Amino acid sequence: MTREIIRKVPSGYLMAVVIFIAEAAMIYWFVRSVQTYSMSGIIWAAIAMSLVFVLWFGFFMVHPNQARVLQLFGAYAGTAREPGLRWANPFYTKKAVSVRIRNFESGKLKVNDSRGSPIEIAAVVVWRVVDTAEAIFEVDDYEEFVTIQSESALRNLSTTYPYEPHEGDGVALRSNPAEIAQALREEIQDRLEEAGVNVIEARISHLAYAPEIANAMLRRQQASAIISARSQIVAGAVGMVQMALAQLDAENIVELDEERKAAMVGNLLTVLCSEESTQPVLNTGSLYS
Fold first, then answer.
1. Which ranges constitute the DSSP H helices of the chain?
2. CA nearest 133: which of 269, 277, 276, 7?
3. Using alpha carbons only, how large is the chain's radius of gyration in Å?
């Protein structure tokens, strides 16, 4: 694999002064040769002027958070990373590569989770190029490579975990965002290692059931929520009934036989667990009538 080699290139400002002085000297040589009618001097001065003129094509700019990959007739010659006006061999090809932090959001992918339920999922990936040589020479188009491999990793992750946790399940897409984000980042990084790309962050940006099962799953979630709420209400009501009976017995307010205790428990549970306000019925007779 081609690894990045940092190449120190001279400052363009210094080389501009040097080339300007050399150009002026060649012009002076040419003029003097013409004045002295020296044909050999004219020829050599013209050749020297042409060579110095070619040196002007060696200037290039390196912007902040940008690198220039240098190639000499197809061979990798190094990477210039120092920003500013720079100069290198005029015969180098100088390909600009951005090393800024970039991100993209994948499209909504329709996949099946680990339980076979169709879901829609999308992710945001934050990345940057850390090895310009690998990015240019190891893959055909590193930006397209990042896009395709990230979506492929997202599809694979979606089939590994369930949409939401069930009995016996551990990590789920919906309930464990931090763990899922870490797993997604690691999988994308493994796929992009040879492209000289570092994945800084990867997170799910959209997660939902597919439209064809969304209504059914919503009803199931509502039913689960109702059952959970009812369980808590019943547990609290039973505790309040136990506390009421214990307090009545401890303070000797009234003595109740088992039948009356059962009736009292039924009435209290009806009041506490009912979704609507209960209507009291006054007993004007005795306790047992």
1. 12-35, 39-55, 132-137, 142-160, 177-192, 211-250, 258-273
2. 7
3. 39
Find, among 115, 188, 127, the residue nearest to 155 by Cα. Answer: 188
- Integer Cα distance of 89 and 55 in angstroms: 8
SS3 state of residue 143: helix
CB 171 within 8 A of CB 180: yes
* 8 Å CB contact between 154 and 121: yes
DSSP string, 224-250: HHHHHHHHHHHHHHHHHHHHHHHHHHH
Rounded to 5 degrees, what angle do the CA atoms 51, 53, 56 make?
120
Tokens of 91: 């015969």
- The domain made up of 102-209 has a fold known as Tetrahydropterin Synthase; Chain A (3.30.479)
Q: Are 202 and 150 a contacting pair, CB within 8 Å?
A: yes
**CA 67 to CA 70: how far, in whole Å?**
10
The answer to whether 205 touches 105, Cβ cutoff 8 Å, is: yes
Q: Which amino acid is at 36?
A: T
pLDDT of res. 286: 53
Q: What local confidence, expressed as pLDDT, does residue 288 receive?
A: 52
Tens-place pLDDT, residues 142-163: 999 999 999 999 999 888 888 8
β-strand partners of 70: 78, 94
The answer to whether 123 and 105 have CB atoms below 8 angstroms apart is yes
* Intervals of the chain under pLDDT 70: 166-169, 211-230, 233-234, 237, 245, 248-249, 251-289
Q: How far is residue 95's CA from residue 230's CA, in Å, rounded to a whole number?
A: 66
- pTM, two decimals, is 0.66
Sheet holding 92-98, edge to edge: 75-80, 66-72, 92-98
Query: Which residue carries 């690894």 as its tokens?
Result: 3
